[in-house]
């Protein structure tokens, strides 16, 4: 699809964070924003779907030498700096 647009992919960034940290973030969002889908069973299901359907894609990008993993734990500003660093290193 990108090829049709004459665009090449420089990097694919995978932001990693363990399930407990992600669950805690979403439960906090539930408190703040009251999102009905931020309940523990729904979060667990979303993480399962990610693991089975989306995470396997990383092997595709890794095989092409495009994958960079960024640690998603820490303050938003720290994670942002890591992502910017990963993009700039390409
Ligand atoms: N580094 C972080 N530290 C703490 N909370 C975070 C961090 N990154 C994102 N969040 C919070 O986690 C929640 C989900 O993040 P978001 O990226 O919006 O997820 P979604 O993929 O559901 O859109 C949001 O409330 C966001 O503010």
Automatic annotation (TrEMBL):
Subunit text: Monomer.
SUPFAM superfamilies tied to this protein: P-loop containing nucleoside triphosphate hydrolases (SSF52540)
InterPro entries: Adenylat/UMP-CMP_kin (IPR000850), P-loop_NTPase (IPR027417)
Keywords: ATP-binding, Kinase, Nucleotide biosynthesis, Nucleotide-binding, Transferase
Record protein name field: Adenylate kinase
This enzyme's EC code(s): 2.7.4.3
Primary enzyme class: transferase
Catalytic activity: AMP + ATP = 2 ADP
Primary location: cytoplasm
Species this protein is from: Demequina litorisediminis
Similarity-based family: Belongs to the adenylate kinase family.
Cellular compartment(s): Cytoplasm
């Amino acid at each position: 699809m990108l090829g049709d647009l004459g665009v090449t992919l420089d990097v694919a960034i995978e932001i990693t964070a363990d399930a407990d940290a992600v669950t805690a973030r979403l439960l906090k969002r539930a408190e703040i924003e009251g999102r009905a889908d931020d309940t523990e069973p729904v979060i667990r299901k979303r993480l399962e779907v990610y693991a089975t359907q989306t995470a396997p894609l990383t092997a595709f990008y890794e095989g092409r030498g495009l994958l960079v993993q960024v640690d998603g734990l820490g303050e938003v500003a720290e994670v942002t700096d890591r992502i910017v660093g990963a993009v700039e290193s390409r």
